[in-house]
Amino acid sequence: MYHGCVTIPEVLLQYEQKLNEFQLGLEQARSGSLLSGVLLALALVMFLGMSLLAFRQQISVLWPAIPAPVVAVAASRFSRNRQTETRMRRLRSFYDRAIQRAGGDWAGKGTSGGEFNEPNHPYAGDLNIFGEGSLFERICTARTAIGRRGIAEYLLKTPQVEETNLRQEAVEELRSGLALRERLAALGEFEFFESKWETFSEWLDTPTIPFPAALPVVAFITSTLVASAFVTGLVGLAPWISIATWISPLLAFHAVVGLFFRKGVNRMIEWVRPMSLETRVLREGLQLLEGQSFQSAKLRHLAAQAQWSSTEIRKLERMLNALNERNKEWFYLPSLLLLVGTQLCMGIEDWRFKHRDDLRKWLDAWAEFEALNALANYAYENPQNTFPEVLDDGCSFQASALGHPLLSASCVTNDIRLDQSVRFYIISGSNMSGKSTLLRAIGLNAVLAFAGAPVRAQHCRLSRLSLCASISLTDSLLNGKSKFMAEVDRLRQMIEAGSVAAPVLFMIDEIFAGTNSRDRRIATEAVVRTLLKRGAIGALSTHDLALTEIATSDLRGKNVHTGSRDGTDPLDFDYRLKPGITSETNALAIARMAGVPV
Questions:
Q1: Residue 480 pLDDT > 80
Q2: Does residue 217 or residue 79 have the better pLDDT?
Q3: Which of left, alpha, beta for 480 (phi over 0: left; psi -120 to 50: alpha)?
Q4: β 504-509/537-542 pair status
Q5: What are the backbone dihedrals phi and psi of residue 417, each rounded to the nearest 5 degrees, phi first?
Q6: CA-to-CA distance for 159 and 4, rounded, in angstroms?
Q7: Distance separating alpha carbons of residues 456 and 262, to the nearest angstrom
């Protein structure tokens, strides 16, 4: 247990204080904006009035300059107050969502992560990793889509033990970093400014435009000469007829180059258009990461990986902004004469050639940094959770007071021990008694453990495991696959995973449902034996008491069950895991619930 952390009520109190602080700041910024706006309007009216009088020669032409400093100061303060107002509004929203999470009212109000769901993933769909009310929604506080992708990667893959330990160390260091998380939430001028992994990776993979090596230098020289000639004409150092004669060959050269590369340049402009807004958020984030001083090895590595990234991305950002300005009416004709669009595309292409690998590395660093901050925020909001001990060898999952991480504070907890002495549980029990919830509690806490987050338990120790679950499989009309065949495929996936990766931790709900009891018993034992031969541990839940015989065989299993609180009401469940096989039935009670007179 992390004893230095605050309690949940203290977290809520701190969040409420922060919310009030930013609400007050928002009101003050609004008042400042209003006052600055009124002052600016009055100064402008004064300026226009004095300008009119000066035009009529009723006052000196110097009088309109008097309000100019007031206009400048008022405009500056108005802009600054508007920026502060935007920031306060976003931070208020950040703590609104934080209070919802800490108070348990978060489901359906965050980011579901559905775009990261993999249909054939061995556990994502069964453990509710993505979707409304999912683990991803509970954890995700990432500012960018790049960070959301980083969180998804952490939840979908089991890393090496050394990597898990490095993540734990980083999460613990970031855990109390509220100020840093505020800065992350405030990245970008507006909240709708995004930064997506796909935007950058797709651009990096687009075909190159083969510009001649000498063309950038030649185009720069000719454009400089053309611009200098226009300046010369404007200041009257040479007649325009002479200037036109002199620069005509240069403009002709620009026209030829522009027409020759027009198709490629226009195509490239379309490729980079989405990046113009997204680059700023990434640059600001990497600049924030660069400026941090960390103690943990993982965070120091990410900060080093991002070194000089913001400087280089700033160069790209300027070129992208200039390319956008090139299409504005006021600059379009000069940009054509000076070959601005082509030169900017050459500069962007040169940047891509030099920093292709660097950009991928910077994206990886930012994705991990946001993922670690999201896990640290989860750890801060769940101070009762503890960091697990992850072992580099063996095959075990042991936890005391293990609870489902997505349930409220009143969640019932249970002790779990799966290792070489007890290889698997067979969990019997009636409907709604908590069997599936227990399976998910085991799986979700394992996902959190390998991601580097604390788990919902008083103590937890587990080895590196490959997670596989068969809990909520359904028919797929689109793929022409029945629920039974989907289950068979998942069981095959479990068996194959145990032969190539770490030992499997399997979680199976109602295995081979719909099969007659005798065949079900035979097939289930065959599957369990195969999994155990490949080093697996796990748990199966069932209504079919014939399957409980498997635990009494030579396979080192254990029969446990869930049931009612005291046996008097078959629907009054306590959700406690008890030794042995269930002796309860609630069929008649369920029938009465359905309105059947029994």
A1: no
A2: 217
A3: left
A4: parallel
A5: -145, 110
A6: 28
A7: 59
Q: Which residues contact 343 (CB under 8 A, 6 or more apart)?
A: 216, 219, 220, 223
Helix (H) or strand (E) holding 401: strand 397-402
- DSSP labels, 423-464: -EEEEE--TTSSHHHHHHHHHHHHHHHHHT--BSSSEEEEE-
Predicted pLDDT of residue 475: 47
Three-state SS sequence of 266-330: HHHHHHHCCHHHHHHHHHHHHHHHHCCCCCCHHHHHHHHHCCCHHHHHHHHHHHHHHHHHHCCHH
- Region of 559 (left: φ > 0; alpha: ψ -120 to 50; beta: rest) is beta
Residue with more model confidence, 237 or 328:
237
User: Where are any strands of DSSP class E within 510-567?
Assistant: 537-542, 557-561
Neighbours of 407 (CB within 10 A): 15
Residue 300 binned pLDDT confidence (cut-offs 50, 70, 90):
very high
Mean of pLDDT over the chain: 88
Q: What is the pLDDT of residues 188-225, one digit of tens each?
A: 877 777 788 888 988 888 888 888 989 999 999 999 99
CB atoms within 10 A of CB 136: 25
Among 506, 503, 523, which Cα is nearest to 515's?
523
Residues 194, 296, 383, 182: what is their CA dihedral angle, to the nearest 10 degrees?
-30
- Mean pLDDT of the region 115-120: 90
Residue 304 burial by CB count (10 A; 0-12/13-18/19+): exposed, middle or buried? Answer: exposed
Q: If we measure between CA atoms, which residue out of 104, 101, 95 comes closest to residue 181?
A: 95
Cβ(181)–Cβ(288) under 8 Å? no
The CA distance from 388 to 463, in Å, is: 10
Tell me the residue length of the chain: 598
